[in-house]
Structures are given as C-alpha cells and as structure tokens.
Task: structure prediction
Amino acid sequence: MKIQQNISLKNYNTFGIDVTAKRFVSVDSVYQLKQLLKTEKDIFLISGGSNMLLTKNIEKLVVHIDIKGISIDNEDDNNAYITVNAGENWHEFVLWSVSQNYGGIENLSLIPGNVGTCPIQNIGAYGVEVKDIITKVEALEIATQKLNTFSNQDCNFEYRNSIFKNEVKGKYIITAVCFKLTKKHHKLNTSYGAIETELASKKIEKPTLKNISDAVIAIRKSKLPDPKVIGNSGSFFKNPVINKEAFLALQKKYPNIPSYIISENERKVPAGWLIEKAGFKGKRFGDFGVHEKQALVLVNYGNASGKDIYQLAEKIQQTILEQFKITLEIEVNIIQ
Ligand code: EPU
Result:
C-alpha cells in the first residue's frame, strides 16, 4: 500500500475527466483499509468512478477501493447466497452469475461501475433494481474502523436512493455486498418493452438467463455510449415524478408523452423525453454535449472539464423548468 503523489484521475472515472489527486492510494483488502483509516480520516473514495462528475483537483487523500473476490456462502436447492467484494466489476459479476445459471441480475447487465457502489444509488434497469436481490451490505465505519452489516431493510432502498446517500453518507466504506440469487424457477423479467422486442426479433420464446443478458447488452449498446469510447456517467438526471394534474396538462399539450404510474396521484415522466423535446438531444458544444441516442446521458468527447459538463446540466435544468415547470434532479454525484 503505497501513497502516490499527483496522480491523474482520468482513468478512474467513466466521464474521463482529467483532474489530479494530490495523494492517491489503492487498497486491496479490508485489513489495508483499516490500517489506513487509523491515520487518515479525511479521504475521498473512488471505486468504479461511474457515478461522479469531478469538477476540480482533489486535495484529500484519494482512496481507490480495489478489494476483489467472490464467494458462495451457502446454497440450497433453490438459491445461492453470494458475497462479492466491493472492488469487483459489476458487469463481470453479472456475466459470472449468468454462466453459473444464477438468476436475478441478468437485467442489470452492462451497467458500469463496481459491486461496492451498486447499493448506494440502488442501480436499476429494465424492470429490476439491485435492492430486489441484495440481502445485506458490509461496510467499514470510518471513525471507528468497525465492520458493520446493513440488512436490506436497513439500507432504506428507494428509486436511485439509499441510506448511503443520506443518513450515513461519508461515514462508511462499503467493503462487500451479499446477494440471494436463484438456482431454478428463475423469476425472469421480460416485461420491459425493449426486451420483449429484442427477444422476439431473435425468435426466442423461452428465454434463458443468457438470452436476457444478451438482449439487455444489445439494447444498452444501441442506446448508451461505451464509457471506454465516449466519457459518460449513464443517466445524468433522475426521471421526475409529477402530480397527476400537472401530467394531464402536459399530456394535453403533448399527447405522445410517455409516462409510468407511480401512485393514484403521481406519474413518472422520462427526463430523456423532456430533454429531447427541449431540443438538446445530440447537441455538441466543443468537447462535451448530450448523447445523440439517449438525451439523459451527458458526454465528454475528449478533454471536457467537469465544470463544462456541470454548466450544461444547469442549462438543461433551467430550460426544462421554464418549458415544462418540472425540476430535474441530478442523479450523478457532483464533486465540487
Ligand atoms: N426517451 C426519449 N428521448 C430520449 C430518451 C428517452 O423520448 O432521448 C423516451 C423513450 O422513448 C422511452 C422513455 O423515454 O419512451 C424511456 O426511455 P428508456 O427506456 O431509454 O429509459 P430511461 O427512463 O430514459 C431509465 C434509467 C436507465 C435505465 C433505463 C432502462 C433512470 C434515470 N434511468 O432510463 O438507467 O438503463 O431506464 O431501464 O431511471 C442509469 O441510471 O445510468 C441508466 C442508464
């Protein structure tokens, strides 16, 4: 465990923003992390770097969580109970599960980032959220270096939200996540329109876990930019929930507006649709812009700064507020 000086973080964040860490250290075990925390408390954590926008150099010690390992804790006829260390790549874990015929996370294929950060924003896609298969989260308390276990209930999971973004934010480092996956009678979730269409186009009637994973990979590749090619952080904003009256008024003006029913009085509308309607889709301003195939994704074409991208996000928020009277909430962590 060696503390390095003046390290570029460009390869440690999927937006590919080139800021510098004054001091940087990579840790590959809980033991190393505990040792480090005895003397260093003012730290900045980085894991997969897939949900952050860095807008300035980092003065604190940057701690890169690189704790690897997957273990099967227990198995019965129907389920496998698996612990995955925080530094494992999420998509590789999904592919491994699918190859073992363990079901539950196939719809979450190709989501960037590491396993340790998946509970923080309760990653979700195509009708599945990670809260549906997490049994518990293990995390180290920074102040005491004690390992704590958060049960699924303790995590207070909500849409793109959890206790780790609220009450205990900045107080814990997630070291491992435990999952309950199915070994048979898989609960396949193909109801999301794009998956059904993709499977139908391949004439697949009885899909396997692999078929679903492949379908999700194909859909994501067709819409979302690969961070290795074009810097991005997935959805930049959350899909807003508005009240039914406001929605009906919008629908009168825009009869084709997509929506999802949240409750009797609430409707969720896709932020990507609003941003497209406001004319931002595919707009490029020098080295940054709005992705041409999915307006919810802001992109870095090369050497954009975090400030450039943040300013664009604010411009989009202001336009959506003026045009639709809807406040768009940013999903990505802005580091400023
Ligand atoms: N739409 C547009 N224009 C766009 C983008 C979307 O009109 O530029 C419309 C689509 O036609 C569709 C609706 O909006 O009717 C929903 O679009 P899509 O299925 O692409 O999903 P989304 O609501 O934009 C959410 C998640 C994604 C996740 C997909 C699939 C959020 C903030 N985003 O996007 O998550 O992959 O559903 O489940 O909830 C992420 O969080 O990084 C992410 C990519």
Remarks:
- The CA atoms of residues 68 and 161 lie 25 Å apart.
- The helical segments are 30-39, 90-99, 193-201, 209-223, 244-253, 271-277, 306-324.
- The first helix runs from residue 30 to 39.
- The first strand starts at residue 4 and ends at 8.
